[in-house]
Each structure stands twice: as structure tokens, then as C-alpha cells.
Amino acid sequence: MGSQQNYGASYPTSEPKLCANNCGFFGTPENGNFCSKCYKQLCVQVPPSAINSLLRLSAPPALPDAAKPSSSAEQSPPCAAEPSKPKNRCGCCNRKVGLTGFVCKCGTTFCGVHRYPEKHQCTYDFKTAGREAISKENPTIKGEKVQRF
Questions:
Q1: Matching InterPro entries, A to Z (predicted)?
Q2: I need a labelling partner for 31 at 20 to 30 A (CA). Which of 11, 47, 119, 123 fits?
């Protein structure tokens, strides 16, 4: 018990690096120092051969001009796009719902209190959807007229 070993000394410690696209998130070396979101955008908008050449560089540049969204008023980084509500929170009270969240037909997740359409001012038109479903399931069938002798 008299000797102490330093187990962490044999492994190099690396501090997280920011995304190469300067979006504010941390990048990983496997993705060429891009964050996961910027890397996915890069994969979608740039051909695979160009991605490999970008990842081989020691200091990868930002996304190419063709991959960046163009805006006449202001250039914003692709990771700072529109903020959206997380899917694990209630659309009304912002309470965490976890696995027990209820997804309404309007497309939003709600907690147990706000799961009913009357409780969250639902925009889905249930009457029209019901009428369309009935008309599809029960088509009008008309037989031929019987000719009298």
C-alpha cells in the first residue's frame, strides 16, 4: 500500500475541441472535428469523395460555400438554425414527459394533463378526418336497375 500508481499518466488526455464549423458545439476526431449535426449536413450536401479529402486534412475547413445555406440578410451557421421544442417535453407546460409522452394527431407531444385535444387547443380537424375515413371505408354501391318485363 505504500506505492501509488498513476494509471492516467499512460493515456494522453485530450480536451474537447469545438466544431470546425464554429457552431458552438464540440466536434469529434472521427467526424473531422465537426459536431454530429454539421457532419450530417456535410454528408448530405457534399459528395463522399470530397468528404474523405476534407477529413484527411489536419485542420478541416468550414463547410464549403455550396453546403452552407444562403441568406440575403444574414449568414448564420447551419447548427444555429431554427430552435425547435424537444420531443421529450410537453408542448403546453414544457414538463419532461420521458417515455410516457402522448403524441397527438397534430404532431406535438404532451403530458398526461394536456393529452386531450380540449386541453391543448388542438389544430387537428377530427371531424373532417372522420368523414374522410368513413367515406373511404364505406363506398357507395349502386346496383344496376332491374328491367321489368
A1: AN1-like_Znf, AN1_A20_ZnFinger, Znf_A20, Znf_AN1
A2: 11
**Mean pLDDT by groups of 10 residues along the chain of 149 residues:** 51 70 83 84 74 56 47 40 64 90 90 90 92 90 83
Least Cα distance to 40 among 89, 7, 78, 84 occurs for 78
What is the fold, at CATH topology level, of the domain defined by 98-137?
A: Zf-an1 domain (4.10.1110)
- Cα Rg, the chain, nearest whole Å: 28
- Under 8 Å between Cβ of 90 and 108: no
Q: Where are the domains of the chain?
A: 17-68, 98-137
H or E element, residue 137: helix 126-137
Residue 93 neighbours by CB under 8 Å, 6+ apart: 111, 113, 114
32 burial level (CB within 10 Å; 0-12, 13-18, 19+) = buried
Give phi and psi for 103, each to the nearest 5.
Answer: -95, 120
